[in-house]
């Protein structure tokens, strides 16, 4: 869980990403951008459990 300060920092970072994303992806058509982002999400989720900073916290296997 994020603290209030963490939530604020994440929101700020997200705004910056949204502002620069069109420039980063400018070589792609709109539908290509959507497909590319979808593939990045899929790759990220597939490797989530091996990440040093997972997007989804691993489940505690010792919990009932």
What does this 3D model show about the protein?
This protein has 64 residues and is an all-alpha fold. It has one domain. Helix content is 59%, strand content 0%. The chain has two helices and no strands. The radius of gyration is 16 Å and the shape is flat. The two termini are 21 Å apart.
Give a short summary of the structure.
This protein is an all-alpha fold. 59% of the residues lie in helices and 0% in strands. The chain has one domain.
Topology (SSEs and partners):
Blueprint: H1 4-24, H2 30-46
The number of helices is 2
User: What fraction, in percent, of the residue positions are helical?
Assistant: 55-70%
Uncertain segments of ≥5 residues (pLDDT<50)? none
Strand coverage percent:
under 5%
| Cα-to-Cα separation, first versus last residue | 21 Å
Sum up the overall morphology in one term: flat
Largest sheet: none
Provide the domain count: 1
Give a quick set of tags describing it.
59% helix, flat, 64 residues
């Amino acid at each position: 869980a994020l603290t209030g300060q963490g939530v604020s920092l994440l929101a700020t970072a997200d705004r910056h990403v949204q502002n620069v994303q069109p420039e980063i992806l400018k070589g792609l058509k709109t539908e290509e951008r959507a497909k590319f982002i979808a593939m990045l999400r899929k790759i990220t989720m597939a490797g989530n459990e091996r990440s040093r900073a997972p997007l989804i916290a691993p489940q505690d296997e010792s919990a009932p």
